[in-house]
C-alpha cells in the first residue's frame, strides 16, 4: 500500500499543469498535517513537476523529458532573473523555446517574435502588447512596469509578463547561462534514466521460500532478485549461489545477502558503474529516500548507457572540457602532451592551480591507457609526490608512463616538465570500465 507521502505525490502529479498549489490546500485535500504536505511538495519540486516562485507561489509545471532538458519554463526564468510577475501567472508553466532581444524598431522586432518566445525589452508598451498578441511572453528590463490593459491581456492569453531590475545584457547572459548549464546536465545520464521500473521488476518477499525463487527463475531466466518486506523496503539480494543445495521449503530471508548495496534514482550511471565493478555486482536495486524499491539496473544497462553517452555530440562544456581541450599531443616528443597555462587556470599567486594540475595529469593518463585498452577510466587513487609553481602562460610537457595494465586496473606514472625542469610528479591507480 502506498504511503501518505506517495499518495500526495500522485495527487500533485495528477493536477492540471498550471494549477496553483499550497501547503494548506494539500493538507486539507489529503487529510494530512501541513508538515507532511510541505515535505511532499518539496519532493515534487525536486522531481521537476512543481515550481515555487517568490511572490507568486507554487505551481504545477510540465515534467521535462530528458531530451528536452535544455528548455526552461517561464517559472524558472522568473527565479533565474529574480523577476516579478505583473500578469499572465496561469502561463508560467509554459516552456520557453527562444528569447528575442527587442533592440530594434517595433516592426522589425515583431518579425522575430512568435509563439513560445520571450521578448526581452525595456519600457515599450506597444512592443509588450504586440508580443503578447503574437503568442510570446514579455520580460521588461530596468525595473519598469507596464499599463493595466497590457496586464489584463496577459491574463486573458495566459502569457506571463515579467519585470526585472537587471538590464537587457545581464538578463540575456543569466538565461543563456541557465540553458548552458542544462545542456551540460543533459550529457549526464542518471540511474532513473536507465532503470527497469518497479512495475517490470521481479522481486521476492522476505516470507518467500526457495521454491518461489525457482519459479521466478524458470519464468524469467534471471537468477538474481531483490528481496523486500511488506512495506517494499529493500532487505536483501538473493542469487543462485545462495540457494544451491537448499531445500525447496527453506526461507529466502535466512539465505539472502542482507543490507545490499543500493543506488538512488539521481545517482549518475558513471558512479553506479564504478560501484558495480569495484564490488563485482551484476544487479543493483534502485531505492527512494525511504529505502523502498524503485526498480533495478543491471551491468548490461550500465554498459549500454555508457555507449550511448560516447555517441552523443558534445553540447555543453564543463571546466574539465575546457582544460582538456588545451591538452595536445606533442609533434616532436612521442607519447608526450603539451599544455599552456592560461590566466584563468592559475591560483591567486598566478601559478598553476592544484585542481588544474590534477585534471591534466588524469586526462594524460587516460589517453595513454586508451592505447592499451578501450573504455573509461575512474581514478581510484592518486599520489602527487610534488608540484612546483608554474607561472601563467607557461608551456608545460606531461609525460605519462604506463607501468601496468590489467583487466580492470591500470597504474600510470606521470611526470610534468617546464623548460626541461621537472615541476610535478604523480602516480595514479585507475579502474578501467569496458564499453
UniProtKB/TrEMBL annotation:
One matching Pfam family: DRTGG
InterPro entries for this protein: CBS_dom, CBS_dom_sf, Diverse_CBS-Domain, DRTGG, HotDog_dom_sf, Ser_kin/Pase_Hpr-like_N_sf, Thioestr_dom, WH-like_DNA-bd_sf
Transmembrane segments: none
Keywords: CBS domain
Record bears the keyword Membrane: no
Record-annotated CBS domain positions: 195-255, 256-314
UniProt-listed Gene3D superfamilies: CBS-domain (3.10.580.10), Hotdog Thioesterase (3.10.129.10), HprK N-terminal domain-like (3.40.1390.20), Winged helix-like DNA-binding domain superfamily/Winged helix DNA-binding domain (1.10.10.10)
Protein name, entry field: Putative transcriptional regulator
